[in-house]
Amino acid sequence: MNIRRIGAATAAVALALGVSACGSDDGGGEDQLKVGIKFDQPGLGLKEGNDYTGLDVDVARYIADKLGTPEDEIEWVQAPSAQRETLLETGQVDMIVATYSITDSRKEKVGFAGPYFIAGQDLLVRSDDDSITGPDSLDGKRLCSVTGSTSAQTVKEQVPGVNLQEFGTYSECVSALVSGAVDALTTDDTILAGYAAQDQYQGQLEVVGEPFSEERYGVGIAKGDTEMCEQINEAIREMISDGSWDTAVEENLGAAGFTPGEGNPPEPEACA
Ligand code: GLU
């Protein structure tokens, strides 16, 4: 059976019947590892033609290699923030490496290995606007974030007076910020640094630089797959100890002038 050609509902049935939905061996010669990443976040997960770049992409490649999957057997799948749990629950992806914060509510639906990186929520503003200096100055402002993200959730709780608009992707928020349709964009400092450093926005956008949350990036996997979790954690530890983590962080985030904050590199949590 070719898992890639059957629908989500069928995949769920296949799971219920005990048929393996794992991309590594489903008995039909299908040996792709399906990895969910972002396609529009420079420095983290970016698709340009057939080229995939970013820290998440490099972390996924390293893990896949340790799991015995060569790079040409990885199938990259776009994983927008609001769809990540569903993609894992339906077996449409085997793992997600997509600026995916480990949270208790997500853990009710999916499993997490890691963390492999610690980021913090921040704000992106237009360089000529000095009225926004942190969450305290957001009352009445038009703020953009993404549906299904911790960023939108946190800001709703912390700043009830903000005028929040939720889009499907952060790149849509960046366009709205540049055009003046919103006053600021909120998400992880890593993501914001990547947009601010893009050639077409040179000098136009600025990260405020006062992170107000802790985002622990995990590798999303099927809930309850402890063996997979342990293998991924071991790969993350190796990536950190052999210097590949430092290289990947420098190559992907260094160009945007981003230096990892406190807690990096992190120690993966015990698998539940
Ligand atoms: N790390 C946060 C989250 O997982 C924000 C970034 C994102 O939406 O991917 O929700």
From TrEMBL:
Segments of this protein annotated with the region Disordered: 252-272
Coiled coil: none
Residue intervals passing through the bilayer: none
One Pfam family here: SBP_bac_3
Span of the signal peptide: 1-21
Pro residues compositional bias, start-end: 263-272
Record-linked SUPFAM superfamilies: Periplasmic binding protein-like II (SSF53850)
Domain of life: Bacteria
Alphabetized UniProt keyword annotations: Signal, Transport
Domain Solute-binding protein family 3/N-terminal, residue spans: 32-256
InterPro entries in UniProt: Bact_solute-bind_prot3, SBP_3_CS, Solute-binding_3/MltF_N
Tagged with keyword rRNA processing: no
Family named by the database record: Belongs to the bacterial solute-binding protein 3 family.
Protein name as it appears in the record: Glutamate ABC transporter substrate-binding protein
